[in-house]
From TrEMBL:
This is Citrate synthase. Pathway: Carbohydrate metabolism. It comes from Euplotes crassus. It comes from the Eukaryota. Belongs to the citrate synthase family.
Length: 405
């Protein structure tokens, strides 16, 4: 379906590929995706097996460093991450100045970008073009970003609820995140182990997906030698969109608007008439029912045992049932994606809809770091600069339209 650009003699000089459906921008060893068969492997391991047997931090190590960690490597990695989890006071003050009803992703992206101002040693303009060549220095930034992301996210959550920020404490990555979200002075907050496990598995499922829109954005930024903090902020900005990681929030809002199972058929008709889009359905890569939404459904049931059944889950199930049998979706090979049920899980855990994209960004930044690091090591890397076909005016005569003197 590529349209072509021809020269005056009719020779094809360029192909136009909107959305890069057919354009490969590089090699990767981070994950394998086969959308026809629904296969997703992180560094060669099936996502199903990782979700069953691994932990998020182990998977983070695997994605970034290519192999599963030994117990000693895992301990060192976890320790380094925790050592970098404190929010600089100045950044804390900046976050306090956001409006309380600011979208948490706006706060997350701004804080990530703001972190760059504390790390001149990560800025190639100041520290030299080779400032990431030393693996030790590169690792420091990786630990820093992984360590501070739950602190920034929890601060955004607390700020929205007009509550004081909590400092991180020792313990597991997910436990500490829950603690920073919910701890109140004078209490001894302990997160529920079922919810900790559920969020850990959700994070594994969301940690990587090849050259996704956001990972491609990170690689794009890295190609210009942008510092790693702004690369990650840029990845988060791409993720924020409702067609990508913002879809979990959009699904929840859609489910709330539909309201009940009885209203689903009428909504589906609107989708087929192109008056609405069915959020949580369709994927650029998958042309079959992939495994991640199926695993999210099983996680939902475990979360409901602790938090109570979320009514919107039944609305989502009804959508799934109807759409999977409908010729509109069958013909276009549209299936549930990971976002159809993830927002419902997060809502059951007590998160508001607008926080759901943050819960996607936190694990996905592992992917961005892995791709950033891989991209830097690519001997064939070049600044990313797509070709264009200019269709605007040429050689216009300047006629002043207003008197600016
Ligand atoms: N609802 C209704 N129709 C859809 C949907 C949907 N969710 N997704 C695709 N279609 C239709 C399109 O309208 C188009 O129909 P047409 O042939 O009549 O014009 C056809 O299916 C092909 O769709 P494209 O937009 O060309 O597919 P593309 O691969 O470019 O888009 C995308 C993929 C963006 C994910 C799309 O399916 C979508 O918008 N889904 C809803 C948003 C969403 O859930 N995003 C999360 C994706 S997963 C992730 O990033 C985490």
């Amino acid at each position: 379906n590529l349209s072509t650009v021809k020269d005056s003699k009719g020779n094809i000089t360029k192909y136009i590929d909107p959305g890069y459906l057919n354009t490969v921008s590089g090699h990767t060893r981070v994950s394998f995706v086969d959308g026809e068969q629904g296969i997703l492997e992180y560094r060669g391991y099936s996502i199903k097996e990782l979700a069953e047997k691994s932990t998020f931090i182990e998977v983070a190590y695997l994605l970034i460093y290519e192999d599963l960690p030994t117990i000693q490597q895992l301990e060192e990695f976890s320790k380094k991450i925790m050592n970098h989890s404190s929010l600089p006071i100045e950044l804390r003050n900046i976050m306090s100045c956001f409006k309380n009803d600011a979208h948490p992703m706006g706060m997350f992206i701004s804080a990530m970008s703001g972190l760059s101002t504390f790390h001149p040693e990560a800025n190639p303009a100041l520290a030299g073009q080779s400032c990431y060549d030393d693996p030790y220095k590169r690792d420091k930034h990786i630990s820093n970003i992984l360590g501070i992301s739950p602190t920034i996210s929890a601060a955004a959550y607390r700020h929205k609820n007009q509550k004081e920020f909590n400092n991180p404490r020792d313990g597991g990555y997910i436990e500490n995140f829950f603690y920073m979200l919910h701890h109140e002075k004078g209490t001894d907050y302990q997160p529920h182990p079922v919810l900790v496990k559920a969020l850990d598995v959700m994070f594994i499922l969301h940690a990587e997906h090849g050259f996704s829109c956001s990972a491609a954005a990170v690689r794009h930024l890295a190609s210009a030698n942008t510092d790693v903090y702004n690369c990650i902020a840029g990845g988060a900005a791409a993720l924020y969109g409702t067609l990508h990681g913002g879809a979990n929030e959009a699904v929840l809002r859609m489910l709330m608007k539909i309201g009940s199972k009885a209203n689903v058929p009428a909504f589906i008709e609107k989708v087929k008439n192109k008056e609405e889009k069915l959020m949580g359905f369709g994927h650029r890569m998958y042309k079959c029912y992939e495994i991640r939404p199926k695993i999210v459904k099983t996680i939902a049931l475990k979360v409901f045992e602790v938090c109570g059944r979320e009514e919107l889950f039944d609305v989502a199930l009804e959508i799934e049932q109807i759409a999977l049998k409908d010729p509109y979706f069958i013909k276009r090979r549209l299936f549930p994606n990971i976002d159809l049920f993830s927002g419902v899980v997060y809502k059951a855990m007590g998160f508001p809809p607008e926080f759901c994209p943050v819960l996607f960004a936190m694990p996905r930044l592992v992917s961005w770091l892995a791709h950033w690091s891989e991209f830097l090591d690519d001997p064939n890397r070049k600044i990313t600069r797509p070709q264009q076909v200019y269709t605007g005016h040429r050689n216009r005569k300047y006629v002043p339209q207003c008197d600016i003197k």
